[in-house]
Amino acid sequence: MMKNKFRCECPITSAIDIIGDKWSLIIIKQMLIEGKKTFKDFIESEEAIATNILSSRLKMLEEFKIIIKGKLPENKKTNIYTLTDKGIALTPIIVELSIWSDNNLREFHSDLYQGEQIEIIRGNKEKFIENIIENYKKKI
């Protein structure tokens, strides 16, 4: 089944086949940086993902072992999603997208976030990436 998800042998194209849609990296970013864990958390986010799309993306990310699905200890009915090491390994890409966006999209998007996080990234990108990963791992 997974073979059908890839267009060709190119590593970049293959990565884009999995995380290059409109939602996958956003879901990963929400988990990594915003602490979202449940279906309800994702649905209530400002990005406003449709429930059917969210379901299919979560399933696909789970299929490729980027996230794992478990249950909340206090509520066995609620699914909880956690990034695997493969998912956490996308942190530098998410940070690079932030830098690229800050450097290249501000002229088109005047409301683009301009806060402390961007200044920290500019100051020491590697340390910022390390901190995101450490903070995420503390919460899981």
From TrEMBL:
SUPFAM superfamilies: Winged helix' DNA-binding domain. Signal peptide: none annotated. Residues 10-109 form the HTH hxlR-type domain. Keywords: DNA-binding, Transcription, Transcription regulation. GO terms for molecular function: DNA binding. InterPro entries: HTH_HxlR, WH-like_DNA-bd_sf, WH_DNA-bd_sf. This is Transcriptional regulator. It comes from Tenacibaculum todarodis.
